[in-house]
Amino acid sequence: MTSMTGLRPPTRRRAFAALAAALVLLGGSCGKRTAPMRALTKSTRLEGFSAFNDTTASGIGQGVAMSSAALQSASDSSPDVLVSPTRLPSGQPDALDARKIIRNGALDLLVTDVGQSIEKIGSIVKSAGGFVEKSTQSNSGSHSASVTVRIPAARLDQVITQVKALATTVDRESVEARDVTREYIDLDARLRNAQAEEAQYLQILKRATTIKDTLDVTEKLSDVRGRIEQMQGEMKFLTSQIDLSTLGISLHAEADETVAGIHWRPLRQAKVAVNEMVSGLADWVDSVVAFFINLPLIAVWLFSVVFLVVVAVRLVRFLWRRFGPKTTWSFFRRGPTPSPEQKSG
């Protein structure tokens, strides 16, 4: 076979041209063949990814649909499993659509008879669907009382109006409102997520085959149930604060004796003065006792302050003598007093 080096120059050029043309044709045919393959591979990947997404979505939908059934079956078999709260019937608005407001009020009233007023307040609150949470009375100086009631939030204004009608004078009235919609929605979302997580752990627990897997899933499930119970308690407390308003009522008895149209209560004033005197004497005795008990501590502090002052003075004198100016002033000199003859001479 004749080598390329043994060919003549024209023949060699023709051979190189033919070789280049063959390479170009070969590259074009390969590109045409690989292009459909690449397109097919790309479409196959896209179809596979779409199928994977469809499968994942369907699996998630099935998991969500199975959550309620899994929780129901698990609660039947084990009383410790928490079942998700029931949904509202159709036709009723969702609780999250309305704003969540906590409304509380306070009244300071002057009444004729404190005891009768307390009884009437109890009747008013009971008819409104509420209850008396706390009631205290005091007879020191004058008859007074403090009543705390819980009533439905929708009837707070009505109860305030009825209670004010029992008083001769309304000294103070206040109503405050606090919007907790954001807190309620956030707590409800975290509770739903925890319940969905519990349902998933229940499904995994059913498929567990080894003791180790069962123990791991049980531990996770116990932790989730603890968080669910805590959030359910917070939700219950927040809901009670929203549904029931708190109304604090302070009652004071009105004086019976009047002099020239002025309520004159010298006996009450004397009792108040005696109470103040006794309170002042008690404070003085407490101060004296505290002084004598803390006397050693006071002595230690006094000694420490005096010691630090002496040390500071000595240090300043030492530094002044060591590094201060050496000039001696005349009035600091100590010498013999000159005699009158020396002064005259």
Helix and strand element order: HEHEEHEHHEEEHHH
Shape: flat
Based on CA atoms alone, the radius of gyration comes out at 47 Å
Q: Determine the strand fraction and express it as a percent band.
A: 15-25%
Largest sheet: 5 strands, mixed
Give the termini distance in whole angstroms. Answer: 151 Å
Structural class based on helices, strands and sheet pairing: alpha+beta
- Please state the average pLDDT score: 74
Number of helices: 8
Poorly predicted ranges (pLDDT <50, ≥5 residues)? Answer: 1-7, 29-96
Strand arrangement across the biggest beta sheet: 2-3-5-1-4
Number of strand segments = 7
Helix content: 55-70%
Layout of strands and helices, then pairs:
Blueprint: H1 9-77, E1 101-111, H2 114-127, E2 131-138, E3 144-152, H3 156-164, E4 169-179, H4 181-207, H5 211-243, E5 244-253, E6 258-259, E7 262-263, H6 266-293, H7 295-323, H8 340-344
Parallel strand pairs: 1-5
Antiparallel strand pairs: 1-4, 2-3, 3-5, 6-7
Overview of the structural elements:
This protein is an alpha+beta fold. The protein has a domain at 112-257. 62% of the residues lie in helices and 15% in strands. The protein has eight helices and seven strands; from the N terminus they run αβαββαβααβββααα. It has helices at 9-77, 114-127, 156-164, 181-207, 211-243, 266-293, 295-323, 340-344, and strands spanning 101-111, 131-138, 144-152, 169-179, 244-253, 258-259, 262-263. A hairpin with a 2-residue loop joins strand 6 and strand 7 (262-263). Helix 4 (181-207) packs antiparallel against helix 5. It starts with 8 loop residues before the first helix and ends with a helix. Mean pLDDT is 74; it is low at 1-7 and 29-96.
